[in-house]
Design a protein that fits this description.
349 residues; 13 strands; globular; binds 1,3-dihydroxyacetonephosphate; binds iron/sulfur cluster
Amino acid sequence: MYEKMKARLEKIVPDVELRYKAEIAVEINELKKQKNAVILGHNYMEPALFYSVPDFTGDSLDLSRKAAQTDKDIIVFCGVRFMAETAKILNPSKTVLLPAEKAGCSLAESITAEDVHALKAKFPGVPVVTYVNTYADVKAESDICCTSSNAAAVVESLHSDTVIFLPDEYLAKNVANETGKHIIFPTLAPQPPLPQAGEGVKGGEGQLDYQLIGWHGRCEVHEKFTVKDIEAVRAQFPDVVVLSHPECSPEVVAASNFSGSTNAMIRYVQQTKAPRYLVLTECAMGDNIAAANPEKDMLRLCMVRCPHMNTITMEETRDALKFNRYVIDVPEEIRVRAYRAVQRMLEIG
Ligand code: 13P
Ligand code: SF4
């Protein structure tokens, strides 16, 4: 195991750390066999974990498919709670374990099922799309889910004049830009009623004044990247290719060469020939891309880290399997409604 990890990570992880973590990886893989478990690892996992124990790695869309398809008894989700919940929603007869009890997400925390109720009351009949970065009870209130890799396709699949898109403000604005829609952010405080879809305030040439209704949720990591960061790196390395996740602001996305889901960014680096890249997302993913593309320089701005993803360690993953913790449960009444929204998304792709 140490040799295998060293071959990939020699230039990324100090040798003493590799030796220590290789021992834990062996333990994890043994427990995995004993317990008939599968380990799913999100692209944000730290490099030693990412390259040693997951059976599958990927973005949230990819991993929800893997969770739905597995026939193992236990799914260990090396990611955050909303991802583990999605696995449980899709494959309820399996035991789903999240190695760190408090691995949350600022987007999932930004909205409640009651907020969605209130929006539906304010915009009756308008379909609700929720980003998978939400908890099960919010998904249960939605018509369909989306991830960063299919958000625009999901919105367009609805063929609706107006769509409620929750809860990521920046992803919503980026989808609005991509699909040519105008977005508003309503307040739920009492106020004069907003025009309903189909009878809205008309813009020039009979256009509806808005087609997307957003929410002010933010990813606490991606909101911190700025155009100034990009300019500073470009001033020093004029040939740098800048990649950003669509949870970044529209200004950052516009200043980037490419924006896409974590998988899409990984593919982009593999398939292009530039000498250096700046990856505006969780820093560990920059490490993982660097390890897979040693001939390319990978710049990463590590002043912001996802505090939730970073609670998933090799020690916690081993202990999850050893002590059967932390079990993710979703009440059946919520699960069946959330399932419809997630399954509908998977059918779109
Ligand atoms: P992906 O779906 O692109 O993997 O993103 C998940 C996430 O939490 C990004 O911050
Ligand atoms: Fe949530 Fe942002 Fe962390 Fe992704 S990076 S899990 S969106 S807080």
